[in-house]
Amino acid sequence: MTKLLIQGHHSLRGEVELSGDQQTIMAIQAASLLSTHGTVIIDNVPATANVVAMNQLLQSLNVVIEFDRHQQILKMDATRHIEPVKISGQELLAAGAILARCRHVQLVDNGVNPEYQQTMIRIGEFLSQMGATMTTANEMIDITADHLIGQKIDLQNDTLATTLTLMMAATMAQGITVLNNPYDHPAVIELAKVLNKMGARVHGAGTKVLRIQGVTFLHSTDYYALDDQEEASVCLIIGALTAGDVLVRGARQVHLQPLIDHLEQMGNTVIIQRNGIRVIGTRLQLPIDIQPEISRFTGSYTQIALLALQMVAQGTSTISNFSKSELDVLGCAVADRYKQLKYEDRQLVIHGPLKQYPKVVTTNSPMTGLLALLDALVADQVTMINPAEVAGGSFVHLIDRLIELGAKIELSFE
């Protein structure tokens, strides 16, 4: 088993090139199910675990997949008869497309993440509002609909997956669907662009109100994937965390403004450039609370990276809406021997900076691996993380990019 040995407390400097945005790509993978004519083609597709898993889901639905990992080009042909299958976890964002195409979808609680269970329930409730029939049994929601009818739906405090799946369902619904307060994420804007290229009528992407006029037919299209703005977020946080100087090429201010504001409030310098965003970090991070508004603008990996940053701040800060799954990640990656972390009523209070980090961490998920990796970059010690494949599993070539920025990372094959 491969392990990482990391000598921390080094400032990272240099430039980072981003991969294609995973959330956007996964949404478009799901949307390819709506195309009954031609092949949907996506360029700039990284071979991440999430993208590969979505490909496998599509293949199980009888979609023909061609994925050139070297050229990063993905082709999806959903023109054959599609057979519905049970979906769970991150696959839930495909629920709307599967229901629209097959008139039947089954959502299953995989027991891995309580947030997925809540997302599953909310998707079922919203699709029921649009005319679907929902039955629940044995931790599974069975949804059927001969057709869906456009409705006005409020998505305040709902997940990204909920917004994306309702967008896809609404494209084939009768009448107009109005989605108020959709999740604010680049994937929503990009999915709307792609759906419109396929023949849909989606208006208002990037605003507080999405209006979707249902159509009866969608066709193929092609798309060059937006650079991964969550990866950009994590790389900017790494620059701040290590008191480094990092330029993230392809990072876009329009998608990252809440994070930029937070980094500046903590004492970092953020420079908007034509080709990306540059962050110059400081060793004296200020303790600024993370409000729910920031969490709504960021993905899970960004929230974990922000947690690592808060733990080096010089004083007490609070993270609101801190989920049980995030708490489990924290418990796996951090040994709080000095009782500097307190969790109560979905709030995590951090009395920073953290005095001690574990020297050996065994990771069980990319989320745990990312937190352990970022903590190791900060700690003035050698940290061993095991296994290396999971530790670097959040983004393609993450470990290679850290080494290029000057991180002291070695692989051990003992």
From TrEMBL:
State its Enzyme Commission number(s).
Answer: 2.5.1.7
Q: Which InterPro entries match?
A: Enolpyruvate_Tfrase_dom (IPR001986), Enolpyruvate_Tfrase_sf (IPR036968), MurA_subfamily (IPR050068), RNA3'P_cycl/enolpyr_Trfase_a/b (IPR013792)
Q: Name one GO biological process term.
A: cell wall organization
Q: What's the protein name?
A: UDP-N-acetylglucosamine 1-carboxyvinyltransferase
List cellular component terms (GO): cytoplasm
A molecular-function term among this protein's GO annotations: UDP-N-acetylglucosamine 1-carboxyvinyltransferase activity
Q: Which reaction does it catalyse?
A: phosphoenolpyruvate + UDP-N-acetyl-alpha-D-glucosamine = UDP-N-acetyl-3-O-(1-carboxyvinyl)-alpha-D-glucosamine + phosphate
- Keywords for the protein's UniProt record, in alphabetical order: Cell cycle, Cell division, Cell shape, Cell wall biogenesis/degradation, Cytoplasm, Peptidoglycan synthesis, Transferase
| Main subcellular location | cytoplasm
Q: Which family does it belong to?
A: Belongs to the EPSP synthase family. MurA subfamily.
Outline the extent of the Enolpyruvate transferase domain: 7-324
Instruction: Kindly name one Pfam family recorded for this protein.
Output: EPSP_synthase
SUPFAM superfamilies under this entry?
EPT/RTPC-like
Q: Where in the cell is it found?
A: Cytoplasm
Q: In which pathway does it act?
A: Cell wall biogenesis; peptidoglycan biosynthesis
Please give the superkingdom of this protein's source. Answer: Bacteria
